[in-house]
Amino acid sequence: MDVKREIEDRVAFIRKVLADSHFKGIVFGNSGGKDSALVGILCKMACPDTVAVIMPCFSQRNYTVDKQDGMELSSKFNIETRVVDLTPVRAQMLSQLEGVAKLNDAAIVNIAPRLRMTTLYAIAAAEGRLVAGTGNRSERFVGYFTKWGDGACDFNPIADLTVGEIYELLEYLGCPRSIIDKAPSASLYDGQTDEKELGITYKDLDRYIAFERMQGKREPRLEKMFNASAHKRKPPVLYRSLDEE
């Protein structure tokens, strides 16, 4: 990877997206993790009017290490940062849903990512900003993101990068070690880590996506995850009348 060229091309991409859309600024969710760190740095390089939003919700890690790491990133790269506490909103939503539907674990843990995206779009609409996405190629492949939550955005400058490539760019850009060295986690609940939940290391997943799959080697479990999450990677299915064909 030509790291310098990759960064320059992505910054140029962001500037073109802004120019084509006629929006003046960018907003992104700063989770204190690797992906949002890279997106934040790239967006700030491309657009001085970039705002980060830290949105703790339920998980204690959101209020401690994640918030601290997010603030450290913003301080180092001079990114304007705001904090919105979504725990009370989540609690109110769960309260309102009592008696309406019996929520399973998947329904409950996906509430926080969707509340975060609602928050980002509210700020974007109020201030004429675009919402930057923070999903990477590895997570997208296995569907490890929330549909209409962290999977929603106006543009995504890192969607083609595997986790290993994300770290390579972060090292070059001088991202805080606290972000690079900690175990990746969506922090949907306390004690959760991405690799534990996925049942595979990102290193092995990246190798499969980048090399083994292209060589015809198929891992049944990963292919099942890929196929089961296909709906997440597709746009909504729209009705089309015959005269539109």
Spans of at least 5 consecutive residues with low confidence: none
The number of E-state strands comes to 4
Main sheet: strands, sense, barrel: 4 strands, parallel
What is the percent of helical residues? 40-55%
Mean pLDDT: 95
Strand order of the largest sheet: 3-2-1-4
Cα radius of gyration in angstroms = 18 Å
β-strand percent reads 5-15%
Q: What form results from the Cα inertia axes?
A: globular
CATH H level, superfamily name: HUPs
Give the helix tally: 13
Give the CATH level 1 class.
Alpha Beta
The assigned structural class equals: alpha/beta
Give the CATH topology.
Rossmann fold
Question: Can you write the helix and strand succession as a string?
Answer: HEHEHHEHHHEHHHHHH
Distance between the termini: 42 Å
Number of domains: 1
Q: Could you say what the CATH architecture is? A: 3-Layer(aba) Sandwich
In words, what does this structure look like?
The protein has 245 residues and is α/β, with parallel strands linked by helices. The protein has a single domain, classed as Rossmann fold (3-Layer(aba) Sandwich). Helix content is 52%, strand content 7%. The protein has 13 helices and four strands. A four-stranded parallel beta sheet has the order 3-2-1-4, with helices on both faces. Helix 1 (3-21) packs across helix 2 (34-46) and helix 2 packs across helix 9. The longest helix is centred in the first third of the chain and has 19 residues, at 3-21. It is globular, with a radius of gyration of 18 Å. The model has no long low-confidence stretch (mean pLDDT 95).
